[in-house]
Protein backbone atom coordinates (compact mmCIF):
# COMPACT_ATOMS: atom_id res chain seq x y z
CA UNK A 1 0.00 0.00 0.00
CA UNK A 2 1.60 3.18 -1.16
CA UNK A 3 2.42 5.78 1.46
CA UNK A 4 2.25 3.33 4.36
CA UNK A 5 5.07 1.64 6.20
CA UNK A 6 4.88 -2.11 6.86
CA UNK A 7 3.23 -1.68 10.27
CA UNK A 8 0.60 0.73 8.94
CA UNK A 9 -0.11 -1.54 5.95
CA UNK A 10 -0.50 -4.56 8.24
CA UNK A 11 -2.91 -2.67 10.47
CA UNK A 12 -4.85 -1.47 7.40
CA UNK A 13 -5.13 -5.11 6.27
CA UNK A 14 -6.41 -6.17 9.69
CA UNK A 15 -8.87 -3.28 9.68
CA UNK A 16 -10.10 -4.23 6.19
CA UNK A 17 -10.61 -7.83 7.34
CA UNK A 18 -12.57 -6.64 10.40
CA UNK A 19 -14.78 -4.42 8.23
CA UNK A 20 -15.47 -7.32 5.86
CA UNK A 21 -16.28 -9.67 8.76
CA UNK A 22 -18.77 -7.16 10.15
CA UNK A 23 -20.40 -6.68 6.72
CA UNK A 24 -20.78 -10.44 6.34
CA UNK A 25 -22.13 -10.89 9.86
CA UNK A 26 -19.42 -13.34 10.88
CA UNK A 27 -19.64 -14.04 14.60
CA UNK A 28 -16.17 -15.53 14.93
CA UNK A 29 -13.03 -14.13 13.36
CA UNK A 30 -9.38 -14.85 14.00
CA UNK A 31 -6.63 -12.65 12.55
CA UNK A 32 -3.01 -13.73 12.56
CA UNK A 33 0.06 -11.50 12.38
CA UNK A 34 3.65 -12.60 12.06
CA UNK A 35 5.16 -9.39 13.40
CA UNK A 36 5.46 -9.72 17.17
CA UNK A 37 5.87 -5.95 17.62
CA UNK A 38 2.47 -5.30 16.00
CA UNK A 39 0.81 -8.01 18.09
CA UNK A 40 2.31 -6.66 21.32
CA UNK A 41 1.40 -3.08 20.41
CA UNK A 42 -2.24 -4.10 19.86
CA UNK A 43 -2.29 -5.82 23.26
CA UNK A 44 -0.33 -3.21 25.21
CA UNK A 45 -1.29 0.07 23.51
CA UNK A 46 -3.05 1.34 26.65
CA UNK A 47 0.23 1.02 28.55
CA UNK A 48 2.69 2.37 26.00
CA UNK A 49 2.86 5.63 24.14
CA UNK A 50 2.13 5.23 20.45
CA UNK A 51 4.42 7.03 18.03
CA UNK A 52 2.89 9.65 15.79
CA UNK A 53 2.96 7.31 12.77
CA UNK A 54 1.10 4.61 14.77
CA UNK A 55 -1.79 6.66 16.17
CA UNK A 56 -4.04 6.62 13.09
CA UNK A 57 -3.52 2.92 12.25
CA UNK A 58 -4.18 1.64 15.76
CA UNK A 59 -6.91 4.22 16.36
CA UNK A 60 -8.87 3.00 13.32
CA UNK A 61 -8.54 -0.60 14.52
CA UNK A 62 -9.76 0.38 18.01
CA UNK A 63 -12.70 2.36 16.60
CA UNK A 64 -13.99 -0.63 14.66
CA UNK A 65 -13.76 -2.82 17.73
CA UNK A 66 -15.41 -0.35 20.11
CA UNK A 67 -18.22 0.63 17.73
CA UNK A 68 -19.12 -2.94 16.84
CA UNK A 69 -18.48 -4.85 20.06
CA UNK A 70 -21.52 -6.57 21.52
CA UNK A 71 -20.72 -8.59 24.62
CA UNK A 72 -21.36 -12.29 24.07
CA UNK A 73 -22.54 -11.90 20.48
CA UNK A 74 -19.26 -12.55 18.71
CA UNK A 75 -15.66 -13.51 19.22
CA UNK A 76 -12.77 -11.62 17.67
CA UNK A 77 -9.24 -12.91 18.17
CA UNK A 78 -5.82 -11.82 17.06
CA UNK A 79 -2.76 -13.99 17.50
CA UNK A 80 0.90 -13.94 16.60
CA UNK A 81 2.27 -16.86 14.61
CA UNK A 82 5.75 -17.42 13.21
CA UNK A 83 6.05 -16.42 9.55
CA UNK A 84 6.94 -20.00 8.63
CA UNK A 85 3.47 -21.07 9.85
CA UNK A 86 1.67 -18.39 7.84
CA UNK A 87 3.05 -18.92 4.35
CA UNK A 88 -0.40 -18.35 2.84
CA UNK A 89 -0.15 -14.63 3.46
CA UNK A 90 3.24 -14.41 1.79
CA UNK A 91 2.03 -16.51 -1.14
CA UNK A 92 -1.05 -14.31 -1.67
CA UNK A 93 1.00 -11.11 -1.41
CA UNK A 94 3.51 -12.29 -4.00
CA UNK A 95 0.78 -13.72 -6.24
CA UNK A 96 -1.12 -10.45 -6.02
CA UNK A 97 1.92 -8.31 -6.83
CA UNK A 98 2.68 -10.48 -9.87
CA UNK A 99 -0.85 -11.07 -11.21
CA UNK A 100 -3.37 -8.53 -9.92
CA UNK A 101 -3.79 -4.84 -10.76
CA UNK A 102 -6.49 -3.96 -8.21
CA UNK A 103 -7.96 -5.37 -5.02
CA UNK A 104 -11.02 -7.54 -5.42
CA UNK A 105 -12.88 -10.34 -3.72
CA UNK A 106 -12.93 -13.73 -5.36
CA UNK A 107 -14.32 -17.17 -4.71
CA UNK A 108 -12.38 -20.33 -5.27
CA UNK A 109 -8.70 -20.89 -5.67
CA UNK A 110 -5.84 -19.04 -7.30
CA UNK A 111 -2.57 -20.69 -8.13
CA UNK A 112 -1.36 -22.94 -5.32
CA UNK A 113 -3.43 -21.20 -2.61
CA UNK A 114 -5.22 -24.34 -1.41
CA UNK A 115 -1.92 -26.14 -0.88
CA UNK A 116 -0.53 -23.29 1.22
CA UNK A 117 -3.74 -23.04 3.27
CA UNK A 118 -3.64 -26.77 3.96
CA UNK A 119 0.05 -26.61 4.79
CA UNK A 120 -0.46 -23.75 7.27
CA UNK A 121 -3.22 -25.78 8.93
CA UNK A 122 -1.01 -28.87 9.15
CA UNK A 123 -3.04 -30.80 6.58
CA UNK A 124 -0.38 -31.15 3.87
CA UNK A 125 3.13 -32.49 3.71
CA UNK A 126 5.87 -30.25 2.36
CA UNK A 127 6.24 -30.46 -1.40
CA UNK A 128 9.29 -32.59 -2.11
CA UNK A 129 10.44 -30.47 -5.04
CA UNK A 130 10.29 -27.21 -3.11
CA UNK A 131 11.40 -28.60 0.24
CA UNK A 132 14.26 -30.93 -0.70
CA UNK A 133 16.98 -28.44 0.22
CA UNK A 134 15.29 -27.70 3.53
CA UNK A 135 14.77 -31.34 4.41
CA UNK A 136 18.13 -32.65 3.24
CA UNK A 137 20.30 -29.61 3.77
CA UNK A 138 22.04 -27.34 1.32
CA UNK A 139 25.55 -28.58 2.00
CA UNK A 140 27.77 -30.22 -0.56
CA UNK A 141 29.40 -33.52 0.24
CA UNK A 142 32.96 -34.45 -0.49
CA UNK A 143 33.94 -37.63 -2.28
CA UNK A 144 35.39 -38.93 1.00
CA UNK A 145 32.07 -38.33 2.84
CA UNK A 146 30.17 -40.07 0.05
CA UNK A 147 32.50 -43.08 0.20
CA UNK A 148 32.17 -43.37 3.98
CA UNK A 149 28.39 -43.14 3.66
CA UNK A 150 28.15 -46.00 1.18
CA UNK A 151 30.73 -48.28 2.85
Descriptive keywords:
8% strand, 7 helices, single chain, mainly alpha, two-stranded parallel ribbon, 2 domains, 151 residues
Structure description:
The chain is mainly alpha-helical and 151 residues long. It folds into two domains: 1-81, no CATH class; 83-151, no CATH class. The chain is built from seven helices and two strands. It has a two-stranded parallel ribbon. The longest helix has 19 residues, at 6-24. The termini are far apart. The model has no long low-confidence stretch (mean pLDDT 79).
SSE layout:
Blueprint: H1 6-24, E1 28-33, H2 36-44, H3 52-68, E2 75-80, H4 87-99, H5 113-120, H6 128-136, H7 143-150
Helix pairs in contact: 1-3, 4-5
Number of helices: 7
Helical content band: 40-55%
Computed Rg: 21 Å
Q: What count of structural domains?
A: 2
The rounded distance between the terminal residues' Cα atoms is 57 Å
Task: Identify the overall geometry.
Answer: globular
Low-confidence stretches: none
Outline the biggest β-sheet. 2 strands, parallel
For the largest sheet, list the strands in their spatial order.
1-2
- Supply the helix-strand structural class: mainly alpha
Strand content: 5-15%
N-to-C series of helices and strands:
HEHHEHHHH
Number of strands: 2
Q: Mean pLDDT score, rounded?
A: 79
Amino acid sequence: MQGLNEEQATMAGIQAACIEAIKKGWNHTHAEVSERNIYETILMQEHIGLRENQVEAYGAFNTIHVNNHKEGSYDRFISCVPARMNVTVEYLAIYGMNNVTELSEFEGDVGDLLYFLNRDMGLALPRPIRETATLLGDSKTTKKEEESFWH
